[in-house]
Specification:
The chain is of the alpha/beta class. About 40% of the residues lie in helices and about 25% in strands. The protein is built from 11 helices and 15 strands. The strands form 2 sheets. Strands 7, 8, 9, 10, 11, 12, 13, 14 and 15 form a 9-stranded mixed β-sheet that branches. The longest helix has 26 residues. The structure holds 3,4-dihydroxybenzoic acid (DHB). 3,4-dihydroxybenzoic acid binds next to helix 6.
Length: about 400
Protein backbone atom coordinates (compact mmCIF):
# COMPACT_ATOMS: atom_id res chain seq x y z
CA UNK A 1 0.00 0.00 0.00
CA UNK A 2 1.50 3.33 -1.00
CA UNK A 3 1.28 6.41 1.13
CA UNK A 4 -1.57 7.91 -0.91
CA UNK A 5 -3.81 4.83 -0.60
CA UNK A 6 -3.06 4.69 3.09
CA UNK A 7 -4.17 8.29 3.59
CA UNK A 8 -7.28 7.63 1.50
CA UNK A 9 -8.17 4.56 3.57
CA UNK A 10 -7.64 6.50 6.77
CA UNK A 11 -9.92 9.30 5.58
CA UNK A 12 -12.51 6.81 4.42
CA UNK A 13 -12.64 5.00 7.72
CA UNK A 14 -12.75 8.30 9.62
CA UNK A 15 -15.70 9.40 7.50
CA UNK A 16 -17.41 6.05 8.03
CA UNK A 17 -16.91 6.26 11.79
CA UNK A 18 -18.25 9.80 11.81
CA UNK A 19 -21.25 8.70 9.75
CA UNK A 20 -21.91 5.77 12.04
CA UNK A 21 -21.67 8.14 15.02
CA UNK A 22 -24.12 10.57 13.46
CA UNK A 23 -26.62 7.86 12.67
CA UNK A 24 -26.54 6.43 16.18
CA UNK A 25 -27.12 9.91 17.61
CA UNK A 26 -29.95 10.38 15.13
CA UNK A 27 -31.40 7.03 16.24
CA UNK A 28 -31.36 8.05 19.88
CA UNK A 29 -33.12 11.30 19.00
CA UNK A 30 -35.67 9.85 16.64
CA UNK A 31 -39.08 11.34 17.33
CA UNK A 32 -41.60 9.52 19.48
CA UNK A 33 -44.56 9.24 17.15
CA UNK A 34 -48.22 9.22 18.12
CA UNK A 35 -50.55 8.23 15.28
CA UNK A 36 -53.78 10.08 16.07
CA UNK A 37 -56.69 8.69 14.03
CA UNK A 38 -59.87 10.77 14.27
CA UNK A 39 -63.01 11.59 12.32
CA UNK A 40 -62.07 15.11 11.13
CA UNK A 41 -64.82 15.19 8.48
CA UNK A 42 -68.26 13.58 8.19
CA UNK A 43 -70.95 12.93 10.78
CA UNK A 44 -68.53 12.59 13.73
CA UNK A 45 -66.32 15.61 12.85
CA UNK A 46 -67.00 17.44 16.13
CA UNK A 47 -65.37 14.53 17.98
CA UNK A 48 -62.23 14.90 15.85
CA UNK A 49 -62.13 18.66 16.28
CA UNK A 50 -62.49 18.42 20.07
CA UNK A 51 -59.86 15.69 20.53
CA UNK A 52 -57.32 17.26 18.20
CA UNK A 53 -57.68 20.59 20.01
CA UNK A 54 -57.26 18.91 23.39
CA UNK A 55 -54.20 16.90 22.31
CA UNK A 56 -52.53 20.03 20.94
CA UNK A 57 -53.38 21.92 24.14
CA UNK A 58 -51.80 19.18 26.24
CA UNK A 59 -48.62 19.37 24.17
CA UNK A 60 -48.53 23.17 24.31
CA UNK A 61 -48.83 23.02 28.11
CA UNK A 62 -46.40 20.15 28.70
CA UNK A 63 -43.76 20.63 26.03
CA UNK A 64 -42.93 18.37 23.10
CA UNK A 65 -39.75 16.78 24.43
CA UNK A 66 -40.05 13.94 26.96
CA UNK A 67 -37.05 11.99 28.26
CA UNK A 68 -34.92 13.51 25.50
CA UNK A 69 -37.38 12.43 22.79
CA UNK A 70 -39.23 14.86 20.59
CA UNK A 71 -42.93 13.96 20.54
CA UNK A 72 -44.58 14.09 17.14
CA UNK A 73 -48.32 13.93 16.51
CA UNK A 74 -49.35 12.43 13.16
CA UNK A 75 -53.03 13.24 12.58
CA UNK A 76 -55.12 11.16 10.14
CA UNK A 77 -58.78 11.61 9.20
CA UNK A 78 -60.66 8.30 9.05
CA UNK A 79 -64.03 10.01 8.26
CA UNK A 80 -65.39 7.54 10.90
CA UNK A 81 -65.37 4.66 8.40
CA UNK A 82 -63.79 1.58 10.04
CA UNK A 83 -62.21 0.29 6.80
CA UNK A 84 -60.40 3.60 6.48
CA UNK A 85 -59.36 3.48 10.15
CA UNK A 86 -57.86 0.01 9.64
CA UNK A 87 -55.89 1.07 6.55
CA UNK A 88 -54.58 4.23 8.25
CA UNK A 89 -53.56 2.29 11.37
CA UNK A 90 -51.71 -0.24 9.21
CA UNK A 91 -49.86 2.54 7.35
CA UNK A 92 -48.99 4.35 10.56
CA UNK A 93 -47.50 1.20 12.08
CA UNK A 94 -45.69 -0.10 8.98
CA UNK A 95 -44.57 3.09 7.20
CA UNK A 96 -44.40 5.74 9.92
CA UNK A 97 -43.38 3.27 12.64
CA UNK A 98 -45.53 5.04 15.23
CA UNK A 99 -44.93 4.22 18.90
CA UNK A 100 -48.58 4.63 19.91
CA UNK A 101 -51.94 4.58 18.10
CA UNK A 102 -54.54 6.94 19.57
CA UNK A 103 -57.94 8.58 18.98
CA UNK A 104 -60.85 6.40 17.64
CA UNK A 105 -64.06 8.43 17.44
CA UNK A 106 -66.49 5.55 17.24
CA UNK A 107 -66.59 1.94 18.39
CA UNK A 108 -66.26 0.31 14.91
CA UNK A 109 -63.03 2.30 14.32
CA UNK A 110 -61.52 1.16 17.63
CA UNK A 111 -62.53 -2.45 16.92
CA UNK A 112 -61.07 -2.38 13.40
CA UNK A 113 -57.68 -1.32 14.78
CA UNK A 114 -57.48 -3.80 17.67
CA UNK A 115 -55.89 -6.70 15.67
CA UNK A 116 -53.20 -4.33 14.33
CA UNK A 117 -52.36 -3.17 17.86
CA UNK A 118 -52.09 -6.80 19.00
CA UNK A 119 -49.96 -8.01 16.08
CA UNK A 120 -47.56 -5.06 16.18
CA UNK A 121 -47.54 -4.78 20.00
CA UNK A 122 -48.45 -1.11 19.70
CA UNK A 123 -50.41 0.49 22.56
CA UNK A 124 -53.81 1.71 21.32
CA UNK A 125 -55.17 4.56 23.43
CA UNK A 126 -58.94 4.84 22.92
CA UNK A 127 -59.90 8.47 23.63
CA UNK A 128 -63.55 8.49 22.51
CA UNK A 129 -65.23 5.16 21.69
CA UNK A 130 -67.23 3.79 24.61
CA UNK A 131 -68.65 0.30 24.06
CA UNK A 132 -67.77 -1.80 27.10
CA UNK A 133 -66.17 -4.68 25.16
CA UNK A 134 -63.57 -2.56 23.29
CA UNK A 135 -60.82 -3.13 25.87
CA UNK A 136 -61.29 -6.89 25.46
CA UNK A 137 -60.56 -6.70 21.71
CA UNK A 138 -56.79 -6.34 22.32
CA UNK A 139 -54.48 -6.55 25.35
CA UNK A 140 -52.79 -3.40 23.94
CA UNK A 141 -55.89 -1.20 24.33
CA UNK A 142 -56.04 1.39 27.11
CA UNK A 143 -59.12 3.61 27.39
CA UNK A 144 -59.39 7.21 28.64
CA UNK A 145 -63.00 7.95 27.61
CA UNK A 146 -65.78 6.06 29.43
CA UNK A 147 -68.21 3.21 28.89
CA UNK A 148 -71.96 3.39 28.36
CA UNK A 149 -72.74 0.84 31.12
CA UNK A 150 -70.61 2.98 33.47
CA UNK A 151 -72.73 6.09 32.96
CA UNK A 152 -76.18 4.54 32.31
CA UNK A 153 -76.68 2.74 35.61
CA UNK A 154 -76.63 5.93 37.72
CA UNK A 155 -79.56 7.36 35.79
CA UNK A 156 -81.60 4.17 36.27
CA UNK A 157 -81.03 4.54 40.02
CA UNK A 158 -82.07 8.20 39.97
CA UNK A 159 -85.20 7.91 37.76
CA UNK A 160 -87.62 5.82 39.88
CA UNK A 161 -86.83 7.93 42.96
CA UNK A 162 -87.93 10.93 40.94
CA UNK A 163 -91.30 9.81 39.64
CA UNK A 164 -90.03 8.12 36.48
CA UNK A 165 -91.23 4.52 36.34
CA UNK A 166 -92.36 3.91 32.75
CA UNK A 167 -89.62 4.59 30.24
CA UNK A 168 -89.14 4.19 26.49
CA UNK A 169 -85.52 3.85 25.41
CA UNK A 170 -84.23 5.26 22.11
CA UNK A 171 -80.64 4.44 21.17
CA UNK A 172 -78.32 4.45 18.16
CA UNK A 173 -78.29 0.91 16.82
CA UNK A 174 -74.67 -0.14 17.44
CA UNK A 175 -72.31 -1.06 20.31
CA UNK A 176 -72.64 1.87 22.71
CA UNK A 177 -76.39 2.23 22.13
CA UNK A 178 -77.02 -1.44 22.79
CA UNK A 179 -74.87 -1.23 25.96
CA UNK A 180 -76.82 1.83 27.16
CA UNK A 181 -80.19 0.18 26.45
CA UNK A 182 -79.25 -3.05 28.24
CA UNK A 183 -77.66 -1.60 31.37
CA UNK A 184 -80.26 1.14 31.82
CA UNK A 185 -83.12 -1.32 31.41
CA UNK A 186 -81.74 -4.01 33.74
CA UNK A 187 -81.14 -1.51 36.52
CA UNK A 188 -84.48 0.24 36.05
CA UNK A 189 -86.32 -3.09 36.36
CA UNK A 190 -84.23 -3.92 39.43
CA UNK A 191 -85.42 -0.62 40.91
CA UNK A 192 -89.08 -1.37 40.22
CA UNK A 193 -89.45 0.56 36.95
CA UNK A 194 -90.18 -0.72 33.46
CA UNK A 195 -89.09 -0.15 29.89
CA UNK A 196 -92.27 -0.22 27.82
CA UNK A 197 -90.51 -0.07 24.48
CA UNK A 198 -86.89 -0.23 23.26
CA UNK A 199 -86.38 1.69 20.00
CA UNK A 200 -83.19 1.70 17.91
CA UNK A 201 -82.26 4.24 15.23
CA UNK A 202 -79.54 3.78 12.61
CA UNK A 203 -76.14 5.35 13.34
CA UNK A 204 -75.84 6.90 9.86
CA UNK A 205 -78.23 9.72 8.92
CA UNK A 206 -80.85 8.96 11.57
CA UNK A 207 -84.38 10.36 11.26
CA UNK A 208 -85.79 10.59 14.77
CA UNK A 209 -89.26 11.85 13.74
CA UNK A 210 -91.15 8.53 13.28
CA UNK A 211 -89.62 7.17 16.50
CA UNK A 212 -90.58 10.24 18.50
CA UNK A 213 -94.14 10.13 17.20
CA UNK A 214 -94.39 6.56 18.47
CA UNK A 215 -93.07 7.60 21.87
CA UNK A 216 -95.58 10.43 22.12
CA UNK A 217 -98.46 8.05 21.49
CA UNK A 218 -97.21 5.64 24.18
CA UNK A 219 -97.04 8.42 26.85
CA UNK A 220 -94.25 7.06 29.05
CA UNK A 221 -92.97 9.07 32.04
CA UNK A 222 -89.71 9.60 30.23
CA UNK A 223 -87.73 8.95 27.08
CA UNK A 224 -84.19 7.69 27.72
CA UNK A 225 -81.82 8.56 24.86
CA UNK A 226 -78.35 7.56 23.78
CA UNK A 227 -77.01 9.06 20.56
CA UNK A 228 -73.32 9.66 19.81
CA UNK A 229 -71.69 13.04 20.31
CA UNK A 230 -72.88 15.49 17.66
CA UNK A 231 -76.39 14.01 17.24
CA UNK A 232 -77.93 15.35 20.47
CA UNK A 233 -79.08 18.72 19.11
CA UNK A 234 -81.22 17.03 16.41
CA UNK A 235 -82.92 14.83 19.02
CA UNK A 236 -83.57 17.80 21.29
CA UNK A 237 -84.99 19.88 18.42
CA UNK A 238 -87.41 17.20 17.27
CA UNK A 239 -88.40 16.31 20.84
CA UNK A 240 -89.41 19.94 21.45
CA UNK A 241 -91.00 20.42 18.01
CA UNK A 242 -93.32 17.51 18.72
CA UNK A 243 -94.30 19.06 22.05
CA UNK A 244 -93.22 15.95 23.92
CA UNK A 245 -92.22 18.01 26.98
CA UNK A 246 -95.66 19.66 27.01
CA UNK A 247 -97.25 16.21 26.81
CA UNK A 248 -95.53 15.47 30.14
CA UNK A 249 -92.78 13.22 28.77
CA UNK A 250 -89.37 13.92 30.29
CA UNK A 251 -86.19 13.63 28.26
CA UNK A 252 -83.39 11.84 30.12
CA UNK A 253 -80.21 10.20 28.85
CA UNK A 254 -76.49 9.81 29.05
CA UNK A 255 -74.61 13.09 28.76
CA UNK A 256 -73.93 12.46 25.08
CA UNK A 257 -77.34 14.01 24.32
CA UNK A 258 -76.61 17.31 26.13
CA UNK A 259 -73.08 17.40 24.74
CA UNK A 260 -71.19 20.56 25.80
CA UNK A 261 -70.15 21.00 22.16
CA UNK A 262 -73.80 21.73 21.22
CA UNK A 263 -75.68 22.40 24.45
CA UNK A 264 -75.46 26.17 24.47
CA UNK A 265 -77.15 26.33 21.05
CA UNK A 266 -80.03 24.01 22.00
CA UNK A 267 -82.12 26.81 23.48
CA UNK A 268 -84.22 27.13 26.62
CA UNK A 269 -86.17 23.98 25.80
CA UNK A 270 -83.17 22.01 27.05
CA UNK A 271 -83.49 23.50 30.56
CA UNK A 272 -84.15 20.87 33.21
CA UNK A 273 -82.99 17.86 31.18
CA UNK A 274 -81.31 15.37 33.54
CA UNK A 275 -78.43 13.22 32.31
CA UNK A 276 -75.65 11.13 33.82
CA UNK A 277 -72.06 11.36 32.59
CA UNK A 278 -68.42 11.56 33.57
CA UNK A 279 -67.67 15.10 32.39
CA UNK A 280 -69.28 18.53 32.36
CA UNK A 281 -67.55 21.74 31.29
CA UNK A 282 -69.18 23.17 34.43
CA UNK A 283 -67.45 20.66 36.75
CA UNK A 284 -66.54 22.88 39.71
CA UNK A 285 -62.86 22.09 40.30
CA UNK A 286 -59.86 24.39 39.93
CA UNK A 287 -58.27 21.88 37.50
CA UNK A 288 -61.34 22.00 35.26
CA UNK A 289 -61.67 25.78 35.39
CA UNK A 290 -58.07 26.01 34.21
CA UNK A 291 -58.68 23.44 31.46
CA UNK A 292 -61.88 25.08 30.14
CA UNK A 293 -60.23 28.50 30.12
CA UNK A 294 -57.06 27.36 28.34
CA UNK A 295 -59.06 25.28 25.84
CA UNK A 296 -61.29 28.24 25.00
CA UNK A 297 -58.34 30.59 24.69
CA UNK A 298 -56.55 28.28 22.24
CA UNK A 299 -59.70 27.57 20.18
CA UNK A 300 -61.64 30.83 19.63
CA UNK A 301 -63.83 30.34 22.68
CA UNK A 302 -64.80 26.71 21.94
CA UNK A 303 -66.14 24.89 24.99
CA UNK A 304 -64.50 21.51 25.63
CA UNK A 305 -66.82 18.50 25.77
CA UNK A 306 -66.33 14.95 27.10
CA UNK A 307 -64.43 14.01 23.93
CA UNK A 308 -61.88 16.76 24.59
CA UNK A 309 -61.27 15.52 28.12
CA UNK A 310 -60.78 11.94 26.82
CA UNK A 311 -58.14 13.25 24.39
CA UNK A 312 -56.43 15.46 26.96
CA UNK A 313 -56.19 12.63 29.50
CA UNK A 314 -55.11 10.19 26.79
CA UNK A 315 -52.14 12.42 26.01
CA UNK A 316 -51.29 12.56 29.69
CA UNK A 317 -51.33 8.76 29.93
CA UNK A 318 -48.96 8.56 26.91
CA UNK A 319 -46.61 11.30 28.19
CA UNK A 320 -46.33 9.78 31.66
CA UNK A 321 -45.68 6.33 30.19
CA UNK A 322 -42.91 7.71 27.96
CA UNK A 323 -41.40 9.51 30.98
CA UNK A 324 -41.41 6.28 32.97
CA UNK A 325 -39.43 4.50 30.24
CA UNK A 326 -36.87 7.34 30.32
CA UNK A 327 -37.74 8.24 26.72
CA UNK A 328 -37.01 4.72 25.47
CA UNK A 329 -40.59 3.69 24.77
CA UNK A 330 -41.26 0.21 23.42
CA UNK A 331 -44.79 -1.22 23.14
CA UNK A 332 -44.75 -3.50 26.18
CA UNK A 333 -42.89 -1.06 28.43
CA UNK A 334 -45.27 1.77 27.49
CA UNK A 335 -48.30 -0.43 28.06
CA UNK A 336 -47.03 -1.48 31.50
CA UNK A 337 -46.45 2.18 32.40
CA UNK A 338 -49.96 3.15 31.27
CA UNK A 339 -51.59 0.57 33.53
CA UNK A 340 -52.40 1.76 37.03
CA UNK A 341 -51.94 5.50 36.42
CA UNK A 342 -53.87 7.61 38.95
CA UNK A 343 -54.32 11.32 38.42
CA UNK A 344 -56.65 14.29 38.67
CA UNK A 345 -58.39 14.90 35.35
CA UNK A 346 -60.50 17.98 34.58
CA UNK A 347 -63.45 15.55 35.10
CA UNK A 348 -62.29 14.61 38.64
CA UNK A 349 -60.05 11.80 39.99
CA UNK A 350 -59.42 8.93 37.55
CA UNK A 351 -57.58 5.61 37.57
CA UNK A 352 -56.49 3.32 34.72
CA UNK A 353 -57.37 -0.12 36.10
CA UNK A 354 -54.33 -2.34 35.50
CA UNK A 355 -56.49 -5.46 35.14
CA UNK A 356 -59.02 -4.16 32.63
CA UNK A 357 -57.01 -1.26 31.11
CA UNK A 358 -60.26 0.70 31.40
CA UNK A 359 -60.86 3.98 33.17
CA UNK A 360 -62.39 4.11 36.66
CA UNK A 361 -64.02 7.47 37.36
CA UNK A 362 -66.80 9.43 39.05
CA UNK A 363 -70.20 9.53 37.37
CA UNK A 364 -72.26 12.67 37.92
CA UNK A 365 -75.98 13.38 37.74
CA UNK A 366 -76.49 16.72 36.07
CA UNK A 367 -79.33 19.04 35.15
CA UNK A 368 -79.29 21.61 32.33
CA UNK A 369 -79.34 25.07 33.91
CA UNK A 370 -78.52 28.60 32.90
CA UNK A 371 -75.31 30.00 34.39
CA UNK A 372 -73.94 33.41 33.40
CA UNK A 373 -76.39 33.45 30.48
CA UNK A 374 -75.22 30.10 29.09
CA UNK A 375 -76.59 26.57 29.23
CA UNK A 376 -74.56 24.04 31.23
CA UNK A 377 -74.89 20.54 32.64
CA UNK A 378 -74.78 21.42 36.33
CA UNK A 379 -73.76 18.50 38.54
CA UNK A 380 -76.04 17.79 41.52
CA UNK A 381 -74.93 14.33 42.64
CA UNK A 382 -71.91 12.06 42.28
CA UNK A 383 -71.26 8.31 42.37
CA UNK A 384 -67.59 7.91 43.11
CA UNK A 385 -64.98 5.64 41.49
CA UNK A 386 -67.30 3.75 39.13
CA UNK A 387 -65.81 0.76 37.32
CA UNK A 388 -67.28 -0.39 34.02
CA UNK A 389 -70.12 -2.73 35.10
CA UNK A 390 -69.71 -4.51 31.77
CA UNK A 391 -66.62 -6.34 33.09
CA UNK A 392 -66.94 -8.97 35.75
C1 LIG B 1 -69.33 6.38 20.85
C2 LIG B 1 -69.31 7.54 20.11
C3 LIG B 1 -69.77 8.71 20.64
O1 LIG B 1 -69.76 9.86 19.94
C4 LIG B 1 -70.27 8.74 21.95
O2 LIG B 1 -70.73 9.91 22.44
C5 LIG B 1 -70.28 7.59 22.70
C6 LIG B 1 -69.82 6.40 22.14
C7 LIG B 1 -68.85 5.11 20.25
O3 LIG B 1 -68.98 4.92 19.04
O4 LIG B 1 -68.35 4.27 20.99
Amino acid sequence: MNKRTLVKTAICSAVLTALAGTSSVAMAQEAFKIGLILPMTGQQASTGRQIEAAARLYMAQNGDTIGGRKVQLILKDDTSLPDVTRRLAQELVVNDKVDVLAGFGITPSAMATAPIATQSKTPQVVMAAATSSITQASPYIVRTSFTLPQVSVALADWAPKNGIKKVVTLVSDYGPGIDAEKYFKERLIFNGGQVTEALRVPLRNPDFAPFLQKVRDGKPDALFVFVPSGAGAAVMKQFLERGMDKAGIKLIGTGDVTDDDQLNDMGEGALGVVTSHHYSAAHPSPANKKFVEAFGKANKGLRPNFMAVGGYDGMRVIYEALKKTGGKGGGDALLAAMKGQIFESPRGPVFIDAQTRDIVQNVYLRKVEKKDGQLYNVEFDVIKDVKDPGKN
